[in-house]
DUF3068 domain-containing protein (Phytohabitans suffuscus), 340 residues
Amino acid sequence: MRSRVTHAVLLGLGVLALVFAAGLAFAIGPGVRQLPYDLERTQSVAEAPNATFMQITNGEVKIDQATLRSTITVQPDTDRTADLEGDLDGEAVVWLVGQEVIRTDTNDLVSAYSTSLALDRRSAAALPWSGQWLDTGNERQDVTYSGQTYKFPFGTEKKTYQIFDRDILAAQPAVFVKTEEIEGLETYQFTQEIRGGRQEVPADRLQILLGALIPGATSGQVVYNNTRTVWVEPTTGQYIKVQETQEKNLVADSGQSVKILDAVFTYTDETIASSADRASSNRQLLQIVTMWAPLGLAVLGLALVALALALGLRRGGRHTSPAAIASADTGTKGPVKTPS
């Protein structure tokens, strides 16, 4: 009787472990591999030593040199996320993002922007959304985001992705280059090359720049080049390091040109370390929920089922044979003699 109960308990526990393993792998796991609604506010700081840049102070335009510091802040907009409807409901999250660039010698503001966009919770790519906007300091304007912006997909692959560039308001390809270890993490390096891009500048602002930097010019444009390199932790899709080699030239219709930006922005050591720490923690959580826990439960479940089956077979092997039963029933002990 006891062996029968043990067999049933082991078999039940084994099946339950297998069910939990399947649930973690196929139900809970996919839910973990997506952007949370309660994302913590994060900041990424990059610096550009000895940068050449344009600064406008009290209407005066001048070209200067100093170290620039860029701070990008990302935080969730829970109210706008809750208001999403249709295909976006449950599939997207709204982020509020802002950037400030200052010169480190005086802490004067050089440039700033703020923006709102909707991201796919799984791929982290921008989704079409009527509520997206961009404010570069003049006024809010409509913008159509696409591709990756501030994060890569969970399970990033060694392939080409599209990264949105705010200066040209378009997505351009970022090609996989190689793997590289940073802060003990394997990262995928991607590089995006933008050459001869045109930055949209309001007409009145463009005239101010031309009048100050290229007197006599009546029209022109801002030509933009950027080599953007991102190092991504592939399991989480988080940026570990970012470097941008930016160049902007004010080009007049006469052919005259003035460099208004020449800077190499790179994540600070502190930002790289904190990014790696967050990615490492998130990767461990993902691996536990999506791989190690299901695998462990599956192995445990199979072991318990196998043990239950083995006990069942042993219990079956102990049954008395029919011949022995017959012998016991007749009370005979040995061969039965035939009457003579």
